[in-house]
Specification:
This protein is mostly helical. The chain has five helices and no strands. The longest helix has 31 residues.
Length: 171
């Protein structure tokens, strides 16, 4: 059974994951508008992944006799200055999510909640992977450059990365 503090913190994480899903969805639409099909496909896939993360937490709360709350979600940005600034904002967002997951781990320790601590290990690893992936994409953008002539190559590289990432299983 979840403590009130743990339940509230997990419900706050649901909001963060739902926002992330919408942020990636908005980024996908922006990429598509700019003709960056590889980047759009990547962002849409990321949006689905974030939604699955949200649902996983939602179900966990209910399974542990808590009450998962359907979040109200702040509207994400719709435009970015460049592909680089878009990926920089994604990277910053992912670092914020990592901080939030680490806070959840800290709370689970303080609440002596070993089941939630175990549940959160998936997210700890997932965030390590997400940050590394976004850093990798930013590194590629730095190597290629982000001028108009370079957008095609950035799009192709992100498409390659997207094709290498295995689809998460629906749980």
């Amino acid at each position: 059974m979840l403590t009130e503090k743990m339940e509230a913190a997990l419900n706050a994480q649901i909001v963060m994951e739902a926002y992330a899903s919408n942020l990636y969805l908005s980024m996908g639409a922006w990429c598509e508008q700019k003709g960056l099909e590889g980047c759009a496909k990547f962002m849409y896939r990321q949006s689905e992944e974030e939604r699955s993360h949200m649902l996983k937490i939602f179900n966990y709360i209910n399974e542990t006799d808590g009450h998962a709350l359907v979040p109200g979600i702040k509207e994400p940005l719709h435009k970015w200055e460049s592909v680089r600034t878009m990926f920089e904002s994604v990277y910053e967002h992912e670092k914020n999510v990592t901080k939030s997951i680490n806070d959840l781990v800290r709370i689970s320790y303080a609440e002596n909640d070993h089941a939630t601590l175990n549940f959160l290990q998936y997210y700890v690893e997932e965030q390590r992977e997400e940050e590394a992936l976004m850093r990798s994409i930013l590194d590629k953008i730095t190597l290629i450059g982000d001028g108009p002539q370079s957008l095609y190559f950035i799009d192709m590289e992100v498409e390659k990365i997207n094709n290498l990432i295995p689809e998460e299983e629906n749980e």
